[in-house]
Each structure stands twice: as C-alpha cells, then as structure tokens.
C-alpha cells in the first residue's frame, strides 16, 4: 500500500521509501519509517494532498506520496 | 577585536523565529545583505538584563543544514566559517515544542558543528494544549545545553531567554549526538587534513556542499570531487544514513523527556477552518472574495488620506508662489520638484494598504493554503504551487517577490516564475491605473454596492495575472529541463496576524517607497522640468515675441494667450522634440507626444509616469491655477485636432501598456542577480515590450 492510495481520513504507518532522493527530503520533514500518517484532505483539483505526520501537517504531491510504502 | 557578542537565531520555518527576533530587537533592527550573496540579513541589537548589548542575527528558516533552496545555503556558510563577518559566538536554536522531533533534527546538526548553543523551546502554550508534556530540565541535562521555554506570541519566556544568553559560555558544552566519522571515515579524514578542519561534521558537510560554499576555492572544490570518486562516496546514501542515525538519537532523547498523553491526530481548529478554506468550491470562491475585498478596500479606505495629501501639496504650491521670489528657481521647485513629488506621494496610502494585506495573508498561514490549492493548476502552466507567493507578492513589488522565488527548488519552475512575476501588476502601476481610471471611469455603484472604479481596477489586476499564466505556459514549452520538480511543504496552523509585524511591514514599505522612489522622482522631475522649459536655439524666445505682438494680443484674452503660449513652448522644448520624434511609433496606440515623454521617463521606473504627467501639465498650463494633475489631464486637448487626449480608448490602451511593459530598472537588476545571466533580463525586457505594444494596439483599436 502506498500513501498516495489512501482516501481522506485513512491512516497508515510508514514502512519504507522507493526513491532515495525523495526519501532524504521526506525524512527531513519528519516522514520516518514507523511514523503514523493520516490523509487529512486532498486539494480541490485532486493534487497535492495534505497529511498529518509527527504532529503537524505536510502537503505533498501524489507522485511524491507514491514513493512512501505503508505497512 | 569584537566588542559585542554575536548571536544567531536558527530554526525551522514557522517556529516563531521572527517573532522572537522582533521581541528581542524591537525597533533596533536593520536589513542588510550577507557578504557576497543577496540573501536578506536581518540583524539588530538587544539589551540584556545585565546591561550588556548583543547583536542578534536572524538566519533564514530551514529544516536542515542540507539546503533545499538558495536561501538556505547561507546558514551553513555562516555557521561553519569562522572568518565570515556574520559568524556567531552563540547560536539560539528556536524549536517548536509541538513538533519537537522534526525540530531537533536541525539541533543535532548544529550541535555537531561544535558552536555554543541554547535551545529556545517556543510555543510551549500550544504544546500544553495539545497534551504534550516536555520535561525541560531532563531535556537540558540529556543534551547538556540550556533550554528555555517560551510562548513568544504571549511574550512569555523572553526575559529568561535574555538571561540565558547573558550566562552563556563561549565553549560548546553539548554532548555528542551521532558518530559522524563512521559515515565516511577515510574521506572525512582526508578532507579534514587537506583543509585543516578539526571538526568531522564540518568536513562532511563541506563534502556535500563544496560547490556552493564561497570560502571553498575552485581547486579545493575540484579536489573534493576527486576524493568523492576515490572513496566511492554517494551523497544521498550518506545523507540518508546520517538522517536515520540522527532520528534514532532524537527518539532516545524524546523517550526520556516527552510524554504524549493523547494522540495528536484529533481534529483541531486549523483542520476545521481548512475544511472550508480549501474546499472544492468554497476554497476558490473565498480566495476570489478575499482578493475582491482587498481591492475594494484599497480604493475605499485610501480616499480620505489621499485627498488630504493632495490638499497639502496644493497648499504648499500656493504658499510657494505667494512667498518665494518669482524666478527660475521657484518655478523649478514648484512646477518641477513639488509637482513631481505630489503626483506620487498621493499613492502612499494605497501602497501601504496593499503591503499590509499581503503581510496579513502570509502571517495567518492562508498563503500556504493558496499554494496548496493552486499547485496542480500552476504545474499545468509550468509553475509550481510555490510560485503563487511570488506572483501574489508581485502585486506589491516584483523585486522582493523575485527574490522570494528562491524557495522554489526546481530550476525551471523558478526561472519561469522569475520571468513572469514582473507581469503581475505591482504597486507602482497602481497610481497609473487609479489616475487613468478616475479620468475615464465614472465613480458609481454597480448592483448597489460595487464601486465601478474598484471593479475596473480589479479587472486590470486579473488581466495581468492571466497574462502571467499564459506566458508561463508558453515558456514551459520553450524551456527544456530534466530536473525533477517536487513540492513538499509544511502547512502551518492558522494564527492571528501579529499586528505589530503588519505595521512594521507597512511602515517599511512606505519608507522604501518614499526614499527610493522619491530620489528617482525628484531627479527625473528636475531633468524633465529643464527639458520641458528650454529648447534648442532661440525657439522659446521667438514664441515669447510672437505672443507679445499687438496682432495677437488684440485677438485673444490674456488667459487664452497664456495657454497657447505655454503649449507652444512645450512643443518646441527639448522634451517636446523627443516626444514628437517618437510620436509616429506610438500613434497607433492612441498616444500623443506628451504621453511619449512619460513613456521615456518611466522606462527607469513606472512610478515616474504620474510625476511626469504632473510636471508636464504644470509647465503647460496656467500658472495661477492650482489643481490636482487629474483635473489638468481631464481637460487636456490635442493641439491639432482639439479632441480630448484622454479618451476611454487611449486611457485603457495606456493602462495595458503599463501593465505589460518592463519599465523597472530595479527588477531587471534583481533578475540578473538571481539568475546570474544577462540573457534573462534581456529576454524579459523584449518579450514584455512586444507584448505591451501588441496588447495596447489591440485595445486601442477595439475601443476607438
């Protein structure tokens, strides 16, 4: 399951990243393996999405969210 | 020899770093540049409880020492180079208590640079509300650094922070965080030896960032490149290893010091607000309404202060004519300088309001939502959601907006944003729009509550934004790039705007406008007055003679003669000759030679237009009549045809020309600085000129 596949309100736990370059940037922003993520909302035009992770809200594009594998 | 302690504020964006900076320095702050780069350096003095003064420097907000944008590079540059003129003796790391884990990442990186540090744990009130219990003492003991709890917006903890600064030592006492050397042992050793660096983490960061660091020479940079190959160093893998190690350390620290009594995933107020503000339909409706309200209030609220300023200048001119001895100098002062200044200073209220509104939008966190909503749309036309901030900022001024495009990580997105931002109507066009609109659009209410003039103004702004988007789309097709674009951005929680911050922005914008624009305008007004008052050879004297002959004095009244005389003088002056020379090329746009003069003078800066109009119509007209430039322009007639100069067609054609033409030296200079290539400002200048000419031509011929 990828983060980009979750619907609004669903949550999961980060397992790993499929893109090294993106993983470094995501980890700096608090997206870490073992951390819970919840999809809060999707932008009016369908992309990007807003998620709650490690206590704050982060927005990222679906393409970026698709590099995050969930448990 | 340094007499005062230098303290750097470092922290993630949205942690209240600038609130703390403002609280510590008050009005004792100034904006400069870091040496060699164009990043704004905010610094100020702060008085400590023991009477000592320290210098506080506000470094750009960043999530990590690994820079993601041009602005963030400066943080490591300043912190790692003891010879940098901004190198601090002490670093205050501002951390958001509600999101400690992510905030401590930057702490562990800076701690490993072995600089003396203090942690300022801000937003403690929010953390308590969110049921996050932080054991400050345990945290301080665990890391062996002073930790100060703050709620800076409520002015809690500032005195404690000040005393922590005054008790600080110049020895870094913090415990080690991770084993840096194990990431690339041989490479770190080699680089440390070659560059004589005794800190392994500084050496490792230099390996990562050597290309962008000013204090690393070309040769050293190439040498590091070779070493990376020799030791098979993979930057991204190394950074990933390091980041994971740092989070492991942080998790251990947090385990002993922080208790989360409830899960922080519950619906908070920000979430509820976002439900409406980023709603599929309402989100855009609200965004549009907010922009609409802003432009309506700019017109409505500035009416009285503008009238007041106008009255003051008319009164000053009358006073001057009454009490100053008549002569060339008085004419220069009143018809040249004063007329030019008054034409522009009138717009201070509108500019101040626009800057205030934009700063409120940013301060509340709404701008980040606009970015979020617009990203997909923006990406379609070759921009990024983050381009929205420079584009909306472009409503105030393109210069700082183009600089703010640095937050866009992708080169192509950034170049396109820079190229189209000057198309967005800035505050310097506002005086031109309002002047021309008030000439040809009646001030009446549509549907009972909408001011027609305000509506037309808003349409001008929309037109400029639509054009910026169209041009961006064309550029997306032309410019090639294979760099990946990405969009990972924090959505800060909604907050009330800090009104003192809004006021500071407002007064700052007035100050810059009056001093910067004022200088140019006074200079241009003087030159223009001279050019408009004198002509080649004895042409001007001949006109004087012509109108004093009895043949003419018997035919016309004195008043009529004055008007005829001065307009003929203007036509034969140097300015008139230049204006007439370019008249054929601008006639298809509906402009006469006087407008031509204004176009030439305002190629350096648009705000000069109104000043030029004021000067030209003061020279050309009856001296005894004191009235605002608007009335003089409304009565202006073409000498040849006798028709009114400012018809609806001409006024709109002129507005469109000013909307699209690149008439701002400062913007061109900043585009060069930001892109480091002359081709970008040059391309920008010509594409905008072509666009302006074409659009004006169409508008004039449609409305004629």
UniProtKB/TrEMBL annotation, chain A:
Membrane-crossing residue ranges in chain numbering: none
UniProt organism field: Pedobacter puniceum
Pfam families on file: FeoA (PF04023)
Ferrous iron transporter FeoA-like domain location: 1-70
GO molecular function: transition metal ion binding
InterPro entries: Fe-transptr_FeoA-like, FeoA, FeoA_core_dom, Transcriptional_repressor_C
Protein name: Ferrous iron transport protein A
Top-level lineage group: Bacteria
Keywords: Iron
């Amino acid at each position: 399951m990828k983060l980009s596949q979750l619907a609004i309100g669903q949550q999961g736990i980060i397992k790993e990243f499929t893109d090294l370059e993106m993983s470094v940037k995501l980890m700096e922003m608090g997206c870490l393996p073992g951390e819970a993520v919840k999809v809060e909302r999707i932008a009016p035009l369908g992309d990007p999405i807003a998620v709650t992770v490690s206590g704050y809200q982060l927005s990222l594009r679906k393409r970026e969210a698709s590099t995050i594998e969930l448990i | 020899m340094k007499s005062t302690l230098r303290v750097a504020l470092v922290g993630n964006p949205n942690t209240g770093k600038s609130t703390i900076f403002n609280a510590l320095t008050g009005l004792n702050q100034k904006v400069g540049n870091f040496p060699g780069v164009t990043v704004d350096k905010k610094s100020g003095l702060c008085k400590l409880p023991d009477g000592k003064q320290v210098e506080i420097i506000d470094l750009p907000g960043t999530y990590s020492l690994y820079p993601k944008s041009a602005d963030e590079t400066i943080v490591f540059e300043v912190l790692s180079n003891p010879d940098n003129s901004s190198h601090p003796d002490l670093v205050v790391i501002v951390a958001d208590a509600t999101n400690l884990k992510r905030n401590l990442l930057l702490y562990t990186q800076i701690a490993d640079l072995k600089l003396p540090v203090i942690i300022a744990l801000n937003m403690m009130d929010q953390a308590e509300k969110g049921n996050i219990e932080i054991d400050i003492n345990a945290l301080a003991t665990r890391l062996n650094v002073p930790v100060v709890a703050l709620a800076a917006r409520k002015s809690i903890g500032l005195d404690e922070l000040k005393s922590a600064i005054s008790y600080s030592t110049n020895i870094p006492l913090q415990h080690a965080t991770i084993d840096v050397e194990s990431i690339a042992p041989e490479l770190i050793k080699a680089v440390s030896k070659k560059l004589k660096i005794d800190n392994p983490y500084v050496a490792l960061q230099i390996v990562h960032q050597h290309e962008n660091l000013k204090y690393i020479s070309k040769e050293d940079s190439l040498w590091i490149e070779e070493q990376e190959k020799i030791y098979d160093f993979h930057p991204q893998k190394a950074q990933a290893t390091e980041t994971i190690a740092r989070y492991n350390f942080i998790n251990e620290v947090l385990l002993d010091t922080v208790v989360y009594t409830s899960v922080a995933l519950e619906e908070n107020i920000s979430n509820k607000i976002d439900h409406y503000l980023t709603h599929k339909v309402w989100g855009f409706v609200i965004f549009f309404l907010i922009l609409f309200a802003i432009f309506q209030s700019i017109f409505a609220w500035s009416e009285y202060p503008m009238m007041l300023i106008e009255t003051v200048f008319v009164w000053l001119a009358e006073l001057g004519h009454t009490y100053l001895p008549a002569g060339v100098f008085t004419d220069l002062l009143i018809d040249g300088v004063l007329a030019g200044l008054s034409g522009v200073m009138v717009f201070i209220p509108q500019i101040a309001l626009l800057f205030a509104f934009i700063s409120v939008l940013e301060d509340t966190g709404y701008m980040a939502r606009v970015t979020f909503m617009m990203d997909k749309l923006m990406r379609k036309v070759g921009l990024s959601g983050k381009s929205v901030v420079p584009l909306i900022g472009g409503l105030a001024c393109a210069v700082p907006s183009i600089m703010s495009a640095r937050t866009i990580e992708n080169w192509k997105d950034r170049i396109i944003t820079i190229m189209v931002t000057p198309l967005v109507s800035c505050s310097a066009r506002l005086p031109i729009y309002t002047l021309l609109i008030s000439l040809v659009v009646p001030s009446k209410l549509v549907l009972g509550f909408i001011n027609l003039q305000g509506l037309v103004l808003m349409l001008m702004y929309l037109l400029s934004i639509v054009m910026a988007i169209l041009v961006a789309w064309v550029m997306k097709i032309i410019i090639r790039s294979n760099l990946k674009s990405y969009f990972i951005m924090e959505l800060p929680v909604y907050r009330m705007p800090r009104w003192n911050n809004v006021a500071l922005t407002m007064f700052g914008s007035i100050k810059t406008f009056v001093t910067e624009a004022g200088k140019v305008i006074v200079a241009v007004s003087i030159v223009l007055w001279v050019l408009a008052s004198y002509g080649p050879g004895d042409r001007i004297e001949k006109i004087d003679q012509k109108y004093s002959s009895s043949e003419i004095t018997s035919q016309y009244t004195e008043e009529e003669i004055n008007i005829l005389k001065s307009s003929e003088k203007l036509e034969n002056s140097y300015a008139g000759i230049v204006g007439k020379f370019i008249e054929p090329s601008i006639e298809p746009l509906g402009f006469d030679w006087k407008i031509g003069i204004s176009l030439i003078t305002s190629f350096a800066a648009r705000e000069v237009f109104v000043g030029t109009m004021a000067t030209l119509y003061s020279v050309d007209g009856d001296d005894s009549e004191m009235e605002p430039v608007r009335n003089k322009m409304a009565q202006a007639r073409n000498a040849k045809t006798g028709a009114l100069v400012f018809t609806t067609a001409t006024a709109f054609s002129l507005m469109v020309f000013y909307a699209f033409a690149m008439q701002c030296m400062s913007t061109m200079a900043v585009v060069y600085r930001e892109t480091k290539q002359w081709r970008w400002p040059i391309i920008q200048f010509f594409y905008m000129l072509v666009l302006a000419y074409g659009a004006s031509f169409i508008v004039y011929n449609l409305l004629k």
